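Mods, move this if it's the wrong board.
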Amino acid sequence: MQNAAPERAAHAAALLGAVRARSPLVQCITNTVVQNVTANVLLALGASAAMVDVPTEAGPFARAADALLVNTGTPHAEQRLASVEAARAAADAGTPWVLDPVAVGSLPVRTALAHDLLTLRPSVLRGNASEVLALLGTSVGGRGVDSTADTEDARSAALAGAGRTVGAVAVSGAVDLVAGPTAPGMTDDAAGPGTLVRVANGTALLTRVTGGGCALGAVIAAFAAVSDGDPVAAAVAGTTVYTVAAELAAQDAAGPGTFQPLFLDRLAALTPEDVVRLARITVEETAA
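Not the wrong board. Structure tokens:
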């Protein structure tokens, strides 16, 4: 598609403005290791976070929230129940939601949970290549939370799932990949060519701090709240804003210890003009 990349960057910039204007409330059912990081990232972005992960509360809150994140990083029994309850409520209420299947594949409890959640059709599936392959393809997963595959290895699985099993698939890596159907809302019966958007911003320092990937799932959920039902736009915008801010923070960081607070500062200060100027996006239309 000609000139699609500048259009994607401009749309990401506009959605950043929408997040700042609306301050969407994101319900986060996420792992205990990253709760504080995730909340701080959402606040720096301009959104709000609520860690409502208790059964009987999770479902009603998902109906009232602007978006939902379900992350399988520490799937204790109560949180598993709350995750399914919230995802069902979100699906019923039309609340956009993001599934982050942390460390699925070789670990049986979270893998079964992620497959159950996938039947509830998340707006966006976000993970590293090994996680996406384990859930949508034939891989057994990576090395714990670390991927042993490249984003391009998950290309076919992401295209196959996008618009069918989930609205969009966001694969994190050195170059992030977002897959979606060409037409928003495409159904199984109308499956056709897919859209692949690659975002080349970012820094390896995101892999050297806790929550570098998990917080991205929450950011994508915040963008899903303001994207008018377009999960591809939400995934591209969230990924772009997040990685541009990280890239800027890395320029002044001495290492992972200084990177994390600098990243929050850069995320808070990022402007739509920064996004348009610095985003490195490419777009490919291809047969699914």
